[in-house]
Amino acid sequence: MEHIRMPKVENVRLLDRLSSRRAVVGTLYLTATHVIFVENGSETRKETWVLHSQISSIEKQATTATGCPLLIRCKNFQVIQLVIPQERDCHDVYISLIRLARPVKYEELYCFSFNPKLDKEEREQGWKLVDLNEEYNRMGVPNNYWQISDVNRDYGVCDSYPTEVYVPKSATAHIIVGSSKFRSRRRFPALSYYCKGNNASICRSSQPLSGFSARCLEDEQMLQAIRKANPGSDFIYVVDTRPKLNAMANRAAGKGYENEDNYSNIKFQFIGIENIHVMRNSLQKMLEVCELKSPSMSDFLWGLENSGWLKHIKAIMDAGIFIAKAVAEEGVSVLVHCSDGWDRTAQVCSVASLLLDPYYRTMKGFMVLIEKDWVSFGHKFNHRYGNLDGDPKEISPVIDQFIECVWQLMEQFPCAFEFNERFLIHIQHHIYSCQFGNFLCNSQKERRELKIKERTYSLWAHLWKNRADYLNPLYRSDHSQTQGTLHPQIAPCNFLYKFWSGMYNRFEKGLHPRQSVTDYLMAVKEETQQLEEELEVLQERLANLQKSQSGNNKVKSKQQDRSKQFGLYTSNNSLANTPQEYSNDLKSFPSRSPSQGDEDSALILTQDNLKSSDPDLSANSDQESGVEDLSCRSPSGGGCLPSEDSGKDSDEAVFLAG
Amino acid sequence: LLRSSQPLTGPNRRRCREDEKLLGTILDEGERGFIIDTRSAQAAKQARMGGGGTEPKSSYPQWRRLHRALDRGRPLQESFARLVEACSDPSASMDRWLGRLDSSRWLGHVKAALSTACLAAQCLDREDSKVLVHGAEGTDTTLLVTALAQLILDPSCRTLEGFQGLLEREWIEAGHPFHLRCARSASSHARGKQEAPLFLLFLDCVWQLSRQFPLSLEFGEQLLLTLLDNAYASAFGTFLCNSERERSLCKVKESTHSLWAWLEQPEEKHKYLNPLYSHNPLVIWPSVEPQSIQLWQGFFLRWIRPSQHLEEARAEIQRLVEGN
């Protein structure tokens, strides 16, 4: 609390991004963990909570007549524009937030004070939900070709790797240690994914310290061991996910890439994904496009193209596709690395795994995938996502890109994933929120030292508890799309990559489809289930009655017309009823007298002048909006009573009375 | 909501008492109306040189004129052709795709059409004002606006039957010159002077509405594609000729079959229905921000991109809703 200069400011205005005239007045509170804005309205008192960890940047803008504007940009892409009446208050809030958003100690983070009211047992159980040993066993290792190695048990060999790694049977401890000395950050080749069907595998590492001519026997032996672990193929691919130029430049610094002459039986391949700095700038440019006020179609498309964002997403996807193909179709093992093997390598390995193995497309499997390729293999969450105040050059949207790749795949294969878009968005949110302990620090070693599992809670348990919200209604484990490998089209496919407004414009509800097909279908599914259960009950009763009767009454049940029968879904039609501003100029209506000439240029229909008021999208003040009368229209189960006016003989439903 | 063509004011600022009276009777005492002119103010002014023009304020005091320039004719046809080219180019790299999409300007036309229709709808619904829409001839952009506005405002136009009725009224009977406009396709090198994909633009806008309100239209994408196909080449007489007069002269109703009758058949009808439809009595206001307007892949990439997975998804939705 010592960093908070001003815990409360009144008469603050919160501006709406799309319509700067739509502002609400309320009170701003600063707490140790959140910034909270509470609306003044007597009925609604809507609250906006923002975690300090989410704050990416704060901008104090020039004071105007209405007050001093403060713009808060968040890592989950929420943008909050406040106007604080007094300049001095604004300055105090600004200084406080600057400090609060840049914690220096882990203990300042929300996860250490967050209390979901679970007991110790439940907390532990939560952490046990995802078990990597179980996962490797599920893959089929250890086996004849792969073994578990504890050479890193005290993090003595590589401090960013986990204590347990899987290596080829023929890789002795000596080879592992020798190889680790020849790899950047000591990140030696280790198993990421094993394909039971054909023994092909995906291994990951960092770049070799080969410079222009250095060699290392143990490292060469390591790669040979990987090859030998797959008897079905006489070579392995070595995939360097960097652009060739960057990799070559690294050679001057004593690092570089594998020379095909030195390593027997490898086929080397550059894939060309740009580095973290390029990605950081790309996201920045894309967000600038999102912040444009009333952009034209051109502004938007050019801005998006200029940022290069979708091009990068495609590059990551293409790399994943290449590796998945190598494993599934050619049966060849792949060793993947970038520079340090914790960014692009993680992205590419997890995309490839997702394509290859349907398990990772289930909710549990996805959590396992992130735990495996990101958490356990030492992706630098703290540096990349700014848990603590650090070097801004280390910040980069690496896992965001992976999550977007998953979303792009979901759009192309709507039936293939057990989870929905909301699942992805919530995971991204919590990677930055530091509300749970899963994504803290830079390595397993650091997390153990901080005793994360004893002091914080697991996000996976939280998501799992609420899994009903995250299901994809179109998913069926026996559907053809969910079996086996996914084959996204490689070319032509530029147009298949869409701008993800659900993520980057997440908080601008007006931009998204106003009716959620996912929610509707989930509700349908639920009701269907309920009706089926009722049907079962009634059928049982019927069977019992039949037994006790002489049985000369026929029963036929009529095929229900689902769409008419379905009455429990409450569509949120209120959103449908709010028009946005369709014109740009800001002249009010109808103040011009008729005599002012012919050229009456663009006139605005401003919200202020409209008769009915439409404050917030979520409020239902308009007479027209509101919930339809959706009473159940016909009795469920059994059949339909023939209508009274139909003179026809109904050879349709005739059912047993009573 | 009214529609017409441009008043023939001409360079000498002619007046027509009957026209003024007609527009006068539409409005009550002291009531204001809006005229939405689908030409830019500049173009409307220039039209006077050719005998056309706009309604002068002095002669039509109760009407306020708004200009919303909507492209039609040659520029629209070029825009369409460029987009089709960009989509079918196999060598197109990711680097320049969005730039090409943008330089075709097609999505800009969609945005403009939807915005104008929303403006008309807003005048009617929020301002309780009457609206007159016209461009030059009243057969192209005018119909685009009036038909879209009705879809936005009126739930009965969103049923299959209502939509058919809307098309009959606002496009066919209103005299959109289908024969001239849909003479050839965008892939043809012979570019007829009168060709323009207005009807396609309309259906694209309808598709945008269905994407933003997936539960509110009783029909699906398949209907839109079928309508488009038939506008260009058809076994039915529904889209023949350029006007009711021509159809009557050619005895279309006596010598051809109607597309609507075909679609009505139960074995056909179910293909075109939207399984997610549930009656929505409210006005549906679309977002016209660039993020909300997307490329109609089902049409533009129809023969280019395999749609198997999307079809499977559609089948799954059908299955879920029908409760197999």
TrEMBL record, chain A:
A single Gene Ontology CC term: endomembrane system
* One annotated GO biological process: phosphatidylinositol dephosphorylation
Polar residues bias spans: 570-596
Q: Where is the Tyrosine specific protein phosphatases domain?
A: 307-351
**Binding of substrate: at which residues?**
275-276, 338-344
Q: Which SUPFAM superfamilies match?
A: (Phosphotyrosine protein) phosphatases II, PH domain-like
Protein name (Swiss-Prot/TrEMBL): MTMR7 protein
Which organism does this sequence originate in?
Thryothorus ludovicianus
> What lineage does the source organism belong to?
Eukaryota, Metazoa, Chordata, Craniata, Vertebrata
- Gene from which this protein is expressed: Mtmr7
TrEMBL record, chain B:
Single GO MF descriptor: protein phosphatase binding
Q: Name one GO biological process term.
A: phosphatidylinositol dephosphorylation
What gene makes this protein?
Mtmr9_0
Q: Which domain of life is it from?
A: Eukaryota
Q: Which GO terms describe its cellular component?
A: cytoplasm
Name the family: Belongs to the protein-tyrosine phosphatase family. Non-receptor class myotubularin subfamily.
> What InterPro entries has UniProt attached to this entry?
Myotubularin (IPR030564), Myotubularin-like_Pase_dom (IPR010569), Prot-tyrosine_phosphatase-like (IPR029021)
Name the record gives this protein: MTMR9 protein
User: Could you tell me which species this protein originates from?
Assistant: Thryothorus ludovicianus (Carolina wren)
Its lineage reads: Eukaryota, Metazoa, Chordata, Craniata, Vertebrata
**Stretches assigned to the Myotubularin phosphatase domain:** 1-300
